[in-house]
Write a structure and sequence with these properties.
Chain lengths: 685, 118
């Protein structure tokens, strides 16, 4: 079996393998971390781990990833032993350390496989470790896991097959070689014996102990399998029965006068020599679960197909409005058309919702990874930290989840490394020795809010300002900075508290990358902190990137889209509410509050006739708890738009900071730029 | 006489078998991820043969085999076993399995077994 059987293992097969293995590994990790936390490994957990490893072993072997298969096999052995020896005492944290090492190894190999690199990780060290671990818990250094029941076998078989007088007994000799690679040759031999039994009176074979003797398969490969037996059946019938076994390479069947002495005596002498040195562990009937639920009604779909589907639905939505709002229809009497159009509208809405819901996955997918980080870092940094997860059933678009994993990991690492104090520091400030990180997700009006809260030392504003000054990052006088702006400084490129570089944080990846990654999925991030009490990092991400409810506005000849969720109100300005600040910036007074006015035509350099603020319309928008008033020419109406990313040649010039988040195609075929309200507000507030 | 029921909890294995068998003109009439579903599908679909994994959740392959043999004593069930499960395979043979293949298997092996069966 050394040669590669799947030299041309197909791409989809590989994909399926990595997909399933990653899922199984994650499931395993989850079980382990939970078990470690509760200090309890239930019978069901053990079964589950055993099964996971068994499946991985089989699949990896099929794909010829021998190192993965081998390691999985060792773990399977360990859990087999634990399952069958319930009284064995196992240190759960030690065990999970070992198995997590395996998990990491397999993860790493899968990553290699995914990126097209040879999965060449050396498994020997871990295999040895698992072996010695098994020896340790079983208290036997020579243990060999053998899964055969230690039944004593009959010496030879007495058939119920009645010998009637007058019938002639035939004696046969059979010698069989199995095909190379047919595997489990001893069981194949057993199959032949099993098939023959109903027609024979007595039967002898070498090797005798097909099942108990682990060497029997090897013996059969080298020497073949010899049987002598007697039967009333004729040659042809016997041959047919023997040949029921599929993997026979050569078969020698002859009728004989007397049994071959060697075979008969060896069969018996082997029986007499049957002293077993090995520990045999009986196979126990697998736990019967009461649940009859099955997961058969779930299929996995390649995400690229969903993307494609989403695209098509997007196009349909656009095309639909192209048809229904077609200029050719203006002024026509269209009762029936409108009825049909309404029905179409209803269906496309439904279609869109359904496709969206397919793409939604629970955020627990990435939250679960954080348990592992907190666990590992708690140990290595000698901090005692508990991670609490709230709302991990919140659903988010798959694409967003994928982009969120790295930033979250980085933030959690930061919490562990810099946020939570050393034990000594905690006890000297009278805090609970056990630190706590809370990871929370919840839905807030079309967005998902993720909060990462630690009860650590909090951010020191003074330090941050000094640091920013040193690095020349301050653009305003420090006395003018709001709290939020000060904390915002840590997200600037070039801001790094380098004196605190450790193994985990500050590996060249700064908070600026975290921010960039979050913004890439249309999200925003801000920090709240109280010194000595802790820090909260708030991440707001949209539920989905694909479709937003937008308000179309016009400025000159251009059309822009404002995401409806950001709009608070819109109104015509009354000159008496207009205020100018000392720098001549326009502000508007609304119900006692003052808000800055952003003239979109100025912001984007568009020519328009409506220069006077009273001519156009004011749209009050809010993002990240900050409010501003946009000035546009006209409100055109509400529309659902499909968000398209800006083409690459534009993203070179237009960044998020400039206030453009994406673009969309309108029903009439025109292009509308989608405003990024956060970006705009940050420019003026 | 070419309808096959695939039973394995590993989606990967079912998928691999499908890739191997369908181009050869065999029809995969059903797929099951555990023994209980396998029994139900066997009753519903009456396949010509069953390829059955051994270690599965809910109900394992031998359990399902025994039930299937009760439904139809002539059922053609071939077990798919991992290495090192000799005792279970023997139990399956005793319970009426018509043969077995061992993971990792090749396309050649699978086709050979099936062609012998049907």
């Amino acid at each position: 079996m050394e040669e590669n059987k799947f030299s041309i293992a197909s791409e989809p097969m590989l994909e399926m393998f990595t997909f399933e293995t990653v899922n199984l590994i994650e499931q395993l990790e989850e079980i382990l971390l939970r078990a470690e936390k509760d200090s309890e490994l239930s019978g069901e957990d053990i079964n589950e781990i055993f099964r996971v490893m068994h499946t991985i072993k089989g699949s990896a072997a099929m794909m010829m990833f021998k190192n993965i298969s081998k390691i999985a096999h060792e773990v399977e052995d360990v859990f087999y032993y634990i399952r069958e020896n319930k009284q064995v005492s196992v240190d759960i944290s030690n065990l999970s350390d070992k198995v997590l090492e395996v998990v990491d190894f397999i993860k790493e190999e899968i990553e290699k496989i995914k990126s097209g690199v040879k999965a060449d990780g050396n498994e020997e060290k871990i295999v040895e470790e698992m072996k010695s671990y098994l020896a340790e818990i079983s208290g036997n250094l020579d243990i060999e896991i053998k899964r055969e029941p230690a039944k004593t076998k009959q010496k030879f078989y007495i058939s119920p097959y009645d010998l009637k007088k007058g019938d002639s007994i035939h004696r046969y000799s059979v010698k069989v070689f199995f095909e190379e690679d047919s595997q489990m040759e001893n069981i194949r031999a057993y199959t032949i014996v099993h098939n023959l039994k109903p027609i024979c009176k007595e039967i002898f074979h070498i090797p005798k102990n097909l099942i108990e003797d682990s060497e029997s398969a090897k013996y059969i490969i080298e020497n073949g399998f010899d049987i002598n037996f007697s039967s009333l059946e004729e040659y042809e019938k016997v041959k047919e029965i023997v040949e029921q076994e599929i993997f026979i390479k050569t078969l020698e069947l002859k009728e004989i006068e007397e049994y071959e002495e060697e075979i008969v005596t060896q069969s018996i002498s082997q029986e007499l020599n049957k002293v077993q040195n090995k520990i045999c562990i009986p196979e126990v009937v697998p736990l019967e679960k009461e649940t009859t639920t099955t997961k058969q009604n779930i299929i996995s779909v390649n995400i690229a197909r969903l993307d494609k589907l989403m695209d098509i639905v997007g196009e349909i939505v656009i095309t639909e409005s192209m048809v229904i709002k077609n200029k050719d229809l203006i002024g026509l009497e269209l009762d029936n058309f409108n009825k049909a159009a309404m029905q179409l509208r209803k269906l496309t809405d439904e279609l869109q919702d359904t496709v969206m819901s397919i793409r939604m996955v629970p955020i627990s997918l990435i939250f679960n990874k954080m348990h592992r980080i907190v666990r590992d870092m708690s140990r290595n940094l000698d901090k005692n930290v508990e991670l609490e997860v709230i709302g991990d059933e919140t659903e988010v678009d798959k694409n967003i989840i994928d982009n969120l994993s790295d930033p979250l990991m980085h933030l959690i690492r930061n919490c562990m490394d810099h946020g939570i104090e050393e034990k000594e520091e905690r006890s000297s400030t009278g805090k609970d020795l056990k630190g706590k990180i809370t990871l929370e997700a919840k839905n807030i009006s079309g967005d998902v809010l993720i909060k990462i809260t630690d009860d650590g030392r909090g951010l020191d504003k003074r330090k941050i300002i000094n640091k920013a000054k040193q690095n020349g990052l301050l653009t305003k006088d420090e006395s003018e900075l709001t709290e939020r702006e000060i904390y915002g400084l840590i997200f600037l490129p070039g801001f790094s508290t380098k004196d605190e570089v450790t193994e985990y944080s500050g590996r060249g990846v700064g908070m600026d990358v975290v921010k960039k990654n979050i913004e890439k999925v249309g999200g925003s991030v801000f920090v709240e902190s109280v010194i000595g009490i802790g820090t909260t990092i708030n991440i707001k991400i949209p539920l989905t990137l694909a479709i937003v409810d937008g308000m179309e506005i016009s400025v000159g000849n251009s059309v822009y889209t404002i995401p409806i969720t950001t709009i608070k109100e819109s109104f015509k300005l009354n000159k008496k509410d207009l205020i100018l600040d000392t720098n001549g910036n326009e502000m508007v007074m609304v119900r006692g509050n003052c808000y800055p006015i952003v003239r979109l035509h100025k912001l984007f350099g568009v020519t328009t006739q409506k220069i006077d603020l009273e001519d156009g319309i004011i749209v009050m928008v809010e993002a990240d708890d900050q409010t501003a008033c946009l000035y546009a020419d006209l409100l055109l109406g509400e529309q659902q738009v499909v968000v398209k990313p800006l083409p690459p040649y534009l993203t070179r010039y237009i960044t998020k900071e400039s206030g453009i988040g994406g673009c969309t195609i309108l029903g009439d075929g025109n292009i509308s730029l989608i405003l990024d309200i956060t970006g705009i507000i940050n420019q003026v507030v | 006489m070419k309808n096959i029921l695939l039973v394995d909890d590993a989606q990967f294995v079912r998928y691999t078998l499908k890739l191997m068998l369908e181009p050869k003109g065999f029809k995969i009439v059903g797929e099951a991820g555990n023994g209980l579903v396998a029994i139900q599908l066997f009753k519903d679909l009456e396949p010509d043969m069953v390829l059955m994994d051994i270690t599965m959740p809910e109900m394992d392959g031998v359990g399902a085999l025994k039930e299937i043999m009760k439904v139809n004593s002539n059922a053609k069930v071939v077990m798919i076993s991992a290495m090192g499960k000799e005792d279970v395979v023997r139990e399956a043979i005793m319970a009426g399995a018509k043969g077995f293949i061992v993971k990792p298997f090749t396309e050649e092996t699978v086709i050979k077994v099936i062609e012998k069966m049907i």
